[in-house]
Design goal:
The chain is of the alpha/beta class. The protein is about 45% helix and about 10% strand.
Length: about 240
């Protein structure tokens, strides 16, 4: 994405604390979403970026929407690729994690017995909904470096309140939800939850792609993202 998007925008792909290419998190380190949010806020402020377009995929999409709730003054727009949907207010995080998909438990067991590669394969096949994994370094080298994250797989992050429908309705910036055409049914359910909670948001389906989105169809991903940003840049100038 870097070269294509950088033709029109300043593009920054930052490395999150303890994730590839940095050293893994030691036991007891703060790896919560709350810590990640403050790291991102510090980065935007240190680089004097002002308000940024945030593009996030999966957990990154979750981080982006939580960031927009905490630091709305730093956000120009949101592009969310198959992150979790807003939840009803007052829902107990423990209830959400009570019955995770079976592949979550299988991946966690593989990790606990030392089979990092097997755990990553099980997890990737589960979220992608297919055993035909894209041949990308992001599905081999990077997950292996980040394998420590599997030790908390299925454990809810309680460092922040869940993102709710009320939070979604308070977002004032243009928001695009991206969904893969071949993604598992839960992705469609998540997209519908966004539409109900935030009817003003835009939604697009990425053809010939499952949850991997930009990994599986980068050209279409770039076209959709640039089209969204161009439309809203024009509106902002009017």
């Amino acid at each position: 994405q870097m070269d294509a998007l950088a033709k029109r925008y300043r593009v920054i792909a930052y490395g999150q604390r303890y994730r590839y290419p940095f050293a893994p998190a030691p036991e007891g380190a703060d790896t919560s979403l709350a810590a990640d949010i403050e790291d991102l806020a510090g980065l935007i402020k240190a680089l004097k970026l002002g308000r940024a377009h945030l593009v996030g995929h999966s957990r990154g999409a979750n981080l982006a929407m939580l960031f927009a709730r905490k630091h709305p003054q730093l956000v120009r727009s949101l592009i969310l690729g198959e992150g979790p949907p807003p939840r009803p207010s007052g829902e107990d995080p423990a209830t959400i994690a009570a019955s995770p998909p079976p592949f979550i438990a299988e991946a966690r067991k593989a990790y606990e017995r030392g089979d990092n590669e097997g755990a990553i394969r099980i997890f990737a096949e589960g979220v992608l909904g297919t055993d035909r994994l894209p041949a990308r370094p992001s599905l081999s080298e990077i997950p292996l470096a980040n394998a420590w994250q599997l030790r908390t797989l299925g454990v809810p992050d309680t460092s922040l309140p869940r993102f709710t429908c009320e939070d979604a309705r308070r977002i004032q910036v243009a928001t695009l939800g991206l969904q893969g055409e071949l993604s598992p049914p839960r992705a469609r359910a998540n997209a519908e939850a966004w539409r109900k909670c935030m009817p003003s948001s835009e939604h697009a389906v990425l053809p010939q792609s499952s949850h991997g989105l930009q990994l599986e169809n980068p050209a279409a991903f770039n076209e959709i993202v640039l089209g969204f940003l161009t439309r809203h840049s024009r509106r902002a100038r009017r």
